[in-house]
Amino acid sequence: MAGTRSGRTCCPVTALKRSARGELAVLRLNSATRHKLLHMVRIEQAVLLGQALTVGGEIAMPTLTPMINGATVTVTYPSPQ
Prior knowledge:
This protein is mainly alpha-helical and 81 residues long. It has two helices and two strands.
Protein backbone atom coordinates (compact mmCIF):
# COMPACT_ATOMS: atom_id res chain seq x y z
CA MET A 1 0.00 0.00 0.00
CA ALA A 2 2.82 2.41 0.72
CA GLY A 3 4.71 3.94 -2.16
CA THR A 4 7.20 6.69 -2.60
CA ARG A 5 6.24 10.08 -3.77
CA SER A 6 8.97 12.66 -4.20
CA GLY A 7 11.17 10.95 -1.62
CA ARG A 8 8.45 10.48 1.00
CA THR A 9 6.41 7.46 1.96
CA CYS A 10 2.81 7.99 0.95
CA CYS A 11 0.13 6.34 3.05
CA PRO A 12 -3.45 6.09 1.73
CA VAL A 13 -4.83 7.51 4.99
CA THR A 14 -2.48 10.48 4.80
CA ALA A 15 -3.47 11.07 1.20
CA LEU A 16 -7.14 11.03 2.17
CA LYS A 17 -6.52 13.52 4.97
CA ARG A 18 -4.72 15.81 2.56
CA SER A 19 -7.49 15.67 -0.01
CA ALA A 20 -10.17 16.26 2.64
CA ARG A 21 -8.21 19.21 3.99
CA GLY A 22 -8.01 20.64 0.49
CA GLU A 23 -11.75 20.23 -0.02
CA LEU A 24 -12.48 21.99 3.27
CA ALA A 25 -10.09 24.79 2.34
CA VAL A 26 -11.88 25.31 -0.97
CA LEU A 27 -15.22 25.44 0.83
CA ARG A 28 -13.83 27.99 3.28
CA LEU A 29 -12.67 30.10 0.34
CA ASN A 30 -16.22 29.94 -1.02
CA SER A 31 -17.48 31.70 2.12
CA ALA A 32 -18.52 28.63 4.14
CA THR A 33 -18.21 29.30 7.85
CA ARG A 34 -16.38 26.99 10.21
CA HIS A 35 -19.70 26.15 11.89
CA LYS A 36 -21.25 25.13 8.56
CA LEU A 37 -18.25 22.94 7.71
CA LEU A 38 -18.33 21.19 11.08
CA HIS A 39 -22.07 20.63 10.70
CA MET A 40 -21.53 19.18 7.22
CA VAL A 41 -18.78 16.84 8.46
CA ARG A 42 -20.96 15.66 11.36
CA ILE A 43 -23.89 14.95 9.04
CA GLU A 44 -21.61 13.08 6.64
CA GLN A 45 -20.21 10.97 9.48
CA ALA A 46 -23.71 10.18 10.76
CA VAL A 47 -24.78 9.04 7.28
CA LEU A 48 -21.68 6.85 6.95
CA LEU A 49 -22.31 5.35 10.39
CA GLY A 50 -25.91 4.57 9.46
CA GLN A 51 -24.83 2.90 6.23
CA ALA A 52 -22.16 0.86 8.01
CA LEU A 53 -24.61 -0.34 10.64
CA THR A 54 -27.16 -1.25 7.98
CA VAL A 55 -24.70 -3.23 5.88
CA GLY A 56 -23.18 -4.85 8.97
CA GLY A 57 -26.63 -5.87 10.22
CA GLU A 58 -27.55 -7.32 6.85
CA ILE A 59 -24.36 -9.36 6.82
CA ALA A 60 -24.72 -10.49 10.44
CA MET A 61 -28.37 -11.58 10.34
CA PRO A 62 -27.97 -14.71 8.17
CA THR A 63 -25.03 -15.75 10.33
CA LEU A 64 -26.58 -15.09 13.73
CA THR A 65 -30.11 -16.32 13.06
CA PRO A 66 -29.25 -20.05 13.08
CA MET A 67 -27.11 -19.56 16.19
CA ILE A 68 -29.93 -17.80 18.03
CA ASN A 69 -32.49 -20.39 16.94
CA GLY A 70 -30.16 -23.19 18.02
CA ALA A 71 -29.58 -21.61 21.42
CA THR A 72 -33.27 -21.02 22.14
CA VAL A 73 -34.79 -24.29 20.95
CA THR A 74 -36.68 -26.11 23.68
CA VAL A 75 -35.64 -29.72 23.88
CA THR A 76 -38.26 -32.13 25.15
CA TYR A 77 -37.03 -35.37 26.60
CA PRO A 78 -39.23 -38.45 26.67
CA SER A 79 -40.66 -39.07 30.11
CA PRO A 80 -39.40 -42.23 31.83
CA GLN A 81 -42.14 -44.87 32.06
